[in-house]
Amino acid sequence: MRNADRQKALRRLDRELRHFRLAAKVKDPTEDLLRAVRQALGIPMAEIARKMKSNPSVIFRLERSQARGTISLKALVRLADAMECEVVYAVVPQDGKTLEQLAERRLWEKALGSEGRGNRE
Q1: Are the C-beta atoms of 87 and 76 separated by less than 8 Å?
Q2: Domains of the chain with bracketed CATH
Q3: 86, exposed or middle or buried, with CB in 10 Å at 0-12, 13-18, 19+?
Q4: pTM of the model
């Protein structure tokens, strides 16, 4: 990818991911999210189980696995769909900066070699 194209892509992604970067600053923003959404919407487990052609114990296990961070993306999407919701996720820099800032820092680190990395290794 040409440098100019890469810069345009970084700026576009940074604009699109702005809200995700803000959400990532919240400690555990998705902790127990499925259960919280289901309860906020007032949807009983039995209703979701019926929509998923399953039983409430499966829904309970899926909510627990989501809270632990072990749920599969496929199961997460199925459960969200049963609540008439959709899954939206993103990959953002860990430090809350933009992708453009992260890319620039990586270029500087590469140019400066290992001394420019500080205690990161």
Answers
A1: yes
A2: 1-17+93-121 (no CATH), 29-91 (1.10.260)
A3: exposed
A4: 0.72
